[in-house]
Amino acid sequence: MASWISMDEACRLLEVRPQTVYAYASRGKLEVMPDPADSRRSLYRAEDVAVLARRKQAGRKHETLAANTLFGAQPSIPTALSSFLRGHLYYRGQDAVSLARSATVEEVAQLLWGASERVDFCVAEPIRSAAPGRVAAFTAMASLAATGHSTRGRLTRVLHAEAQGLVGQLAHAFGAGSARRPLHLRFAQGWKQSAQVAELLRTAMVLLVDHELTSSAFAARIAASTGASLPACLLAGLTTLSGPAHGDASGRVQALFGEVERLGDEQVVAHYLSTGSPLPGFGHHLYPDGDPRAAALLALFELPPGIARFIQKVTRLTGLQPNIDVALTALVAHKRLPVDAAFGLFATARSIGLLAHSLEQLAVAEVIRPRGRYVGPRPDAAPGSRG
To answer: N or C terminus: which one in the chain shows less Cβ crowding within 10 Å?
Structure first.
C-alpha cells in the first residue's frame, strides 16, 4: 500500500526546494494527491521520492546528465511565455482563467508574441484542399511548409504577420468562416452557431493557447532552432500535438462518452474501476486539486444529464476532477459541433502558443541537438583493422 508524505518531508529527503518538487510532479516523476486533512496542501508518494533520492545518491555521470537534461524533471529551456503557480496557469504573468473571461484569442496572441500591433487572423487567400477538418488543416500546413522561407534574417514584425496568416489558414481549414471578425465569431459562423456559443468557443480557445514546455512546443522549438520556416515549425508542433496522449486526448474522452451513452454511467464506471484502467480526461499531474481551465469552462454551460452524472460519479469514487479534455469534449457534445471540433479548437488555439515558442526560440543562436547514448550491440571492427 502506498504511503504519502508532505512537501517538507519530500524536500528534506531530496535536498531540494519546493519548486523542484513541483517540477518533479509536473513531469510525472512524483505521484501527488490532495491532503485529506487540508485541501490546500498536497501529499507526495513516498516510494517515488525514495526512487529519486537513490538516483541522486548514485551520482550523475556525463551520460546521465545528458539524459536527464532531456527527460528529467526540470525543462532546460528558459521561456517567458507561460508558467504554473499554485495550481494556476499564467500567460506572461497574467492568470489564464482571468484572461478567458473577456480576452479574445487575438489579444492573447498579441500578449504572447510580444507584438506591437493588433493581431488579425484573417487571410486574403485561404487554402482548403479537402472538407473542413484535420485532413484539410495538415494538408494546408504541409503545403506552406514545403514552400516556406527560413526565419533567419527576417524582421520580427514580418514574422508576426506571417504567423497571423498561418493561424488564419488553420482556422479556415477547420471550418471557420472567412468574414473579417474575431476568430471565435468566425468559428461560430462556419459551424452555424449562435453568439452565445461563440462566447464559449472564445473562452475555450483562450484557455488552450499555451501550457508551458509541452512536447509539441519542444518539437516546434527544435524546428525553429534550425532556422526552419514558420509553417514548418508549426507543422512540427501540430504533428506532435495530434497524439492521443497530448492534444487529441479529446478523442479518447469522446469514445468514453460514447460508452456512457450506450451502456450507462454505472456500467462504464464499474468496468474502469474493476480493471484499474485510467479514465481518460480525469486528473492532471500539473493540477492535483483540479484543472482550473476545465472548471472555468464547465461553469459556463449545462452538461448533458448523462455526462453530468458520469462526471459526478467518477469524481466521487476516484477523487479525480475532470480536466480540460473532458470540458472541451462536453462542450462539443452539448452544442452538437462538428465531430472533430474539439481537436480543431485545440489545434487552432495552441497554434498561437506553438508559434510563440518558435518565435522565442529564434533569440537563441544554437541548434537544439540532444546526443544519443548508444546502448545497442557492439559495433564491428572498422574495415581494415586487425582484431
So the answer is: N
Residue with cell 478567458: 100
Longest dimension (CA), the chain: 78
Q: Distance between CA atoms of 186 and 198, rounded to whole angstroms?
A: 8
Q: What is the DSSP string of 277-336?
A: PPPTTB--TT-TT--HHHHHHHTTSPPPHHHHHHHHHHHHHH-PPB-HHHHHHHHHHHTT
Q: Which of 379, 90, 76, 87 is nearest to 212 (CA)?
A: 90
Residue-level pLDDT at 2: 58
Residues 192 and 190: their CA atoms lie apart, in Å, by 6
Task: Determine the Cα–Cα distance for residues 265 and 257; give it in Å rounded to an integer.
Answer: 9
Supply the pLDDT for residue 75.
47
Q: How far is CA 271 from the centre of its chain?
A: 28
Residue ranges, the chain, pLDDT below 70: 1-2, 58-76, 381-387
Q: How many Å is the Cα radius of gyration of the chain?
A: 23
Dihedral of alpha carbons 357, 358, 361, 363, sign: negative
For residue 350, what are the CA distances in angstroms to 109, 171, 202, 378? 10, 11, 13, 43
pLDDT tens for each residue of 169-198 = 999 999 999 878 999 999 999 999 999 999
Walk me through the domains of the chain, giving residue ranges and CATH numbers.
4-71 (1.10.1660), 77-368 (1.10.580.10)
Query: What would the grid cell of residue 130 be?
Result: 479537402
What type of residue is 98? S
Q: Which position has the grid cell 559495433? A: 379
For 117, which DSSP code? Answer: S
Candidates 290, 285, 322, 323; CA nearest to 30 is: 285
Give the separation between CA 30 and CA 32, rounded to whole angstroms. Answer: 6
Strand, coil or helix: 387? coil
**Among candidates 310, 303, 298, which has minimal Cα distance to 262?**
310
Angle at 50 between CA 37 and CA 24, to 5 degrees: 75
- Per residue in 77-97, pLDDT (tens digit) is 889 999 998 889 999 999 999
